Amino acid sequence: MPPRGRWQNGEVNQPSPCAQRPANQLDPATLGERLRLARKQLGWTLAELSERAKVSMTTISRAERGQLALGYENLAALAQALRMDIGTLFSQAGPHSASTGPVVTRAGEGVVYRGLSLSYEFLATDVAAKPFTPVLGTVHARTFNGPQDFARHPGTEFVHVLSGEICVHFENGEQARLARGDSLYFDSRLGHAYVTVSRQLARIVGVSTNESHLMALARQGAAQD
Length: 225
Known about the structure:
The protein is an alpha+beta fold. The chain has helices spanning 28-41, 46-53, 57-64, 72-81, 86-90, 213-224, and strands at residues 6-8, 11-13, 68-69, 111-114, 118-122, 132-139, 156-163, 166-170, 175-178, 183-187, 192-196, 202-209. Helix content is 25%, strand content 27%.
């Protein structure tokens, strides 16, 4: 399945807002408005957010105008800088639940966002400040093009293959080929890239965490040794 829009400089330019999309697929302009509003509420300029998130001003500006799709690395960096979890960015309008009670997301009712190599369906998006981000994903990347494809973000990542087969490339040269029923856990600070290697696009369920206090302490300790 080809990407929506046209590729330019490693980003996906978004098609016309009039293009058909599922009712639960987040409009790029809506996501951009949420990013802009969160930045304005903190009283930050584009330059200040860029410095904190380590994402270029041009990328942030175009994202705020709904002109490109961000990869998970940039989404995670912006959410962390804006002091919110990714799920909050994708939540529907209305109050967010802080309840520890059960939260059900019915089949097909997650919030869909098409990134650079995966389409994400974010789950339990109305729950704020989750310690992890649960997603369903469709891996539409068919080839690994080199280091520019790697995503990196603080925390850990777990992926389980629901259908099809994927190959996960790591910047240390390792590769993990996973078939239906296989799973993988790794430190997501290590550059990684997902590619479908089966005939049909692979479907996965994944969980990403932010870097915990204990993980940060362990990393600092290792750096001092």
